[in-house]
Structure formats: structure tokens, C-alpha cells
Design a protein that fits this description.
single chain; about 325 residues; alpha/beta; 11 helices; about 15% strand
């Protein structure tokens, strides 16, 4: 009788653990696919800190839609169809490959980046990360799988634009962490730099921080989140991190972060910067919330980018204004 009771208790504990892990997986990582149709609606980030800039962001998106561009598709290592849009300033110019944030999209998060690249005389490829818009997938992995997608886009760019193309990897929020992780891997010499705007230091730390912000006991719930990623998402949340990648990075990295960032603490970029082993610069801006450095200090942003990359052998100059 006691043995049967023991088996029932163990089975109940396993069931409870898997159930809670599944709920965590659905909340944190899962993105249901939608029937996406062409629409005139302009996606804008929600929140009071973004509302004063909504008109500017809307104009960026509408301008990007009207600009000549080309659609590209590649396959990820795990067989997903990934989508990107390419905007050409001039043949042979330095090209940025840009990655957006968590549950965002290339159009919503990166349209202003297109204008910035053109103002610096650069070509740009903005990528819909897995799960977003034109790309397939249902699971966000906080850069674990996404950084491999980044490496695949680099390989594609060499084939598409030739062996002489110079590439800067650029990311915003989770996109910043994506490119930082990619920068820790072996890269072709064509990749000449990284621009990381408000990235986190590790998937574990940002998830625990956000869980705490939402009122959950972070230390208690994180093991369930990690297990959910492993069992239902088929990835290890602690396999790799931007902070770990920076210890082996060999290419120049410029970090941007708003000092009032309420989502990804500015301290995380400081942590990434401290361990970075390559030429580096950290730019923090007072009064800037998450992803807002570019609009809060536009001139300072341009100046920092131009100075840093020029000092590290990447031709960069401001050829026009955006704001």
C-alpha cells in the first residue's frame, strides 16, 4: 500500500512539474502562428515611453515601405524559412544586418534603422527573427537559436553580395543579444563590427529579472521555465550567453543603452562591455528608456557610430540627416 502511494505521489509530482513547465513555456517562449495578411496598419511599440515618438516611428515605417527593397529568404539549420528585406544605398557599401527584439518585428523595430544606415551611406538587411511576420517558427529562444540564424544570414550575404562585402551585425534588445552571441563564434573576416543596442547579458538573467518584475518568485519559477524550454522548446536556455560570447569576441563592438531602461537594465550592457575582449565602446544615455537611445540622443548616436567604426577601419561618415 505504501509503495503504491509513493508511486502516486511521484507521478503527481512529475505531472505537476511538467504542467507548470508547459505553462511557463507557453507564456515565455511560444508564439502561435497567425494568418498574416497584408495590411496598411503600422505596428508601433506599446507603452507610455514610446507614445511621444509614435508619429516619428509611423513615418519611418511608411517611408521604409515606399523605398525600393528586395525580399530574401533563407533556411535555418533546423529547417525554418526565414525572411529579410534588403535596402541598397550603393553597391559595394558597408552592409548592416539588423535583428529586432523579443516578440517584435523587423518593420516595427528597425524601420528607423534603415534611415540611419542610409544617412551613414550603408546598405541594410533587416531580418524578421524566427516566429515573426515573414519568418517561420513558433518558439523564441532568447538568442540561443537566433544567433545561429544570424550566422546563416552572414553566409547568405557572402554568397549574395560577393566575397568583398563588409558586414556589421546590428541588434536591438534581444536582437542585440543575438548578434553578440554570434560575435563569439568563428566569423569570416567580412564581419567587421557589431552594434548592440540595449542587449541583455544572458537569457537566464533577463528572464529572472522580468519574472520578478511581474511579481513571480524568480528563483522558484526559473527552473520550471528552463525545463519548459528544454522539454517543449528543445533548446537549453543556459547553453550560451552574450556575456560568455564577449570573452571570445575578436571584432569591434559598440554598445548602446539607455540609463533609464526599465526592461533590460543598463547594467547588463556594462557587464557585457566589461568582459568584451575586442576593441569596444559603451555609450549610455540619461533619460533614455528601452530601445530609445537613438531618438533621445540622435546626434550623439550618429557621432558615436561614426567615430567608433572609423577608428576601427570601417569606412563610416554621415552623408545625410534623419531627424
Amino acid at each position: 500500500m505504501m509503495f503504491k502511494l509513493f508511486i502516486v505521489i511521484i507521478a503527481a509530482a512529475i505531472f505537476f512539474t511538467l504542467l507548470v513547465s508547459y505553462i511557463c513555456f507557453r507564456m515565455v517562449f511560444y508564439v502561435p502562428r497567425k494568418n498574416e495578411k497584408m495590411t496598411d496598419e503600422v505596428p508601433l511599440p506599446e507603452g507610455e515611453v514610446y507614445e511621444p515618438y509614435h508619429e516619428l516611428m509611423r513615418n519611418w515605417t511608411l517611408e521604409a515601405r515606399a523605398m525600393p527593397h528586395e525580399h530574401f529568404y533563407i533556411a535555418s539549420l533546423d529547417g525554418l524559412k526565414l525572411h529579410g528585406r534588403y535596402y541598397e544605398y550603393a553597391k559595394g557599401a558597408v552592409m548592416e544586418i539588423m535583428f529586432h527584439g523579443y516578440r517584435g518585428s523587423a518593420e516595427r523595430d528597425l524601420s528607423g534603422g534603415i534611415q540611419r544606415c542610409f544617412a551613414l551611406g550603408r546598405n541594410v538587411l533587416i531580418v524578421d527573427q524566427r516566429t515573426s511576420c515573414g519568418s517561420e517558427g513558433k518558439v523564441i529562444s532568447f538568442g540561443i537559436n537566433e544567433h545561429r540564424d544570424c550566422l546563416a544570414w552572414v553566409d547568405f550575404s557572402l554568397k549574395q553580395f560577393g566575397p568583398d562585402v563588409k558586414i556589421v551585425l546590428t541588434g536591438l534588445s534581444m536582437g542585440a543579444s543575438t548578434v553578440l552571441m554570434a560575435a563569439g563564434k568563428k566569423l569570416p573576416p567580412n564581419v567587421v563590427g557589431v552594434l548592440a543596442d540595449c542587449g541583455f547579458s544572458s537569457p537566464k538573467e533577463i528572464i529572472k529579472k522580468c519574472a520578478k518584475d511581474m511579481g513571480y518568485p524568480a528563483e522558484l519559477i526559473y527552473p520550471f521555465i528552463k525545463l519548459g524550454a528544454k522539454v517543449y522548446g528543445h533548446f537549453d536556455l543556459e547553453e550560451y550567453s552574450p556575456k560568455e560570447a564577449m570573452k571570445t569576441c575578436k571584432i569591434p563592438v559598440i554598445f548602446f543603452h539607455g540609463e533609464e531602461d526599465g526592461y533590460v537594465p543598463c547594467e547588463m550592457s556594462r557587464d557585457n562591455y566589461e568582459v568584451c575582449q575586442s576593441p569596444k565602446r559603451l555609450v549610455t544615455v540619461k533619460g533614455a528608456d528601452h530601445g530609445m537611445v537613438y531618438v533621445v540622443d540622435n546626434d550623439g548616436y550618429f557621432k558615436a557610430v561614426a567615430e567608433f567604426f572609423s577608428a576601427n577601419g570601417v569606412p563610416t561618415k554621415r552623408v545625410s540627416r534623419v531627424m
